[in-house]
Amino acid sequence: MDQQKIDALRAQAVAPFSHLIDGKHVPASDGGTMDILSPIDGRVLTTTAKGTAADMEAAIASARAAFEDRRWAGQPPAARKKVLMKWADLIEENALELAVLGVRDNGTEIAMALKAEPGSAAGTIRYYAEALDKIYGEIAPTSSDILGMIQKEPVGVVGAIIPWNFPMMIGAWKLGPALAMGNSVVLKPSETASLSLMRMCDLALEAGLPPGVLNAVTGEGKIVGESMGLSMDVDVLVFTGSGGTGRRLMEYAARSNMKRVYLELGGKSPHIIFADAPDLDVAAKAVAGGIFRNSGQVCVAGSRLLVEASIHDDFVAAVAKATSGMNVGDPLNVDTAIGAVNSEVQLMQNLGFVETAQSEGGEVVTGGDRILQDTGGYYMAPTIVTGVTPDATLTQKEVFGPVLGVTPFNSDDEAVQIANATVYGLAGGVWTANLSRAHRMVRDVRTGVMHVNTYGGADGTVPLGGVGQSGNGSDKSLHAIEKYINLKTAWIKL
Ligand code: NAD
Fold this sequence. Notes:
Blueprint: H1 3-10, E1 19-21, E2 24-26, E3 33-37, E4 44-49, H2 53-68, H3 77-93, H4 95-106, H5 110-131, E5 138-140, E6 146-154, E7 157-161, H6 167-180, E8 184-188, H7 195-206, E9 214-216, H8 221-230, E10 236-240, H9 243-255, E11 260-264, E12 270-273, H10 280-292, E13 304-308, H11 312-324, H12 344-359, E14 363-366, E15 370-371, E16 379-380, E17 383-386, H13 393-396, E18 403-409, H14 412-419, E19 427-431, H15 435-444, E20 449-452, E21 485-493
Parallel strand pairs: 7-8, 7-10, 8-9, 10-11, 12-13, 12-19, 13-18, 17-18, 19-20
Antiparallel strand pairs: 1-2, 3-4, 5-6, 6-21, 14-17, 15-16
Helix pairs in contact: 2-8, 3-5, 3-7, 4-5, 4-7, 5-6, 10-11
Bound molecules: nicotinamide-adenine-dinucleotide.
């Protein structure tokens, strides 16, 4: 990474953003705009359109028209593939610009952002582009006087609602399979991280995606997001974000056209360390990285450390040492390990969780404070809290910040019991040299993703989805395609 290039990009003013509807950039119907504050320094970076319900309806109408006249779904698979491959190339060609813009908007440290945002988004789009002409229908084994054909059809208009932690990566998880299968999409990025994703949408048009196939409306969740959720003309809603919003989306679907709703929600992922872990120092570094990168704003963050009681003190000290080696600061500095918290609201919420943990008997071993306040930005010291009981708020509620709660356990059964004692089930990890124990943990810990002797780093070939209140369905891999197709049976008398 070239610090000079990054600095040159960050010095550039960012022009105001507007919606993308029917292939055109348009302002909000009432002219409304929202200030976008950079978490790096708390200053106004630019503005975006503050969408209205009418804007969302216009975007949905555009997507519907594009779907009905088959300007995209009707193209030969090879033609769709060519456009999506070109889009992935353009994302890669503009990777640094996109990453720096995204970091100025959401505060993720640049080293991680570059890989996880444009890098991952381009890879995802390419993965589904390559897959789209390898997906076949089926002939059912019916009696010989009947031909039972099963076709995979696009669903129609997909509404995609995206959070702020990794807008391009998560955006691509929805856009890749949705567009590959011939759907039209209306995107609703997060209020506090929309810029890089909006620019990525422009690149899709540049790559040859027909106007109207991909529309994007910025604005508040409770206005444009609600309007999308209640629309009678959106066929599938795909969402990544908090459980509270997920619950509302299910209600919107029930109150409108019973659209399919797929939810990727939060987590409270247990990172379980046994005394027989192959290398406790490596494990300690993985625990620190697993919770503190991107200031803990990672859905699969290992936010609960469950550690075998016999090594509790030494292991906590090792994690604290690994944490002290992670410098917090300007996310556009290539050496920064932990960038800014996305917003002041989120920062205050994080600090509130630490206070609550202390009031419930937890002890702060390191961190616990807002730091670098003189920058005007939103920074928090990575925080480790010990003495967190299985029923404590810090065990039960997702912080979505750089806060690690530590709970000791004495047996395999107890580890599993504590690990499973939340409403979530997104990710988890176990460190042990005992193969049977590792397999038992993979089997018994109730999550969508389980890591053994490593944490994070999964790629696009494997599904990511939660169980319990962490959601339904999955992003990534060929399995994600199921969300974006209908199965149609043709029953033909021979
Ligand atoms: P959020 O629920 O506040 O917002 C997510 C999106 O929903 C935003 O675009 C927002 O504008 C929109 N929204 C808000 N209210 C809405 C409403 N009433 N109707 C429709 N849309 C509405 O979540 P967030 O704070 O942006 O993201 C953090 C959450 O996302 C965390 O819980 C995190 O764990 C989760 N997450 C999950 C995954 C996963 O794959 N499971 C990945 C990343 C983040």
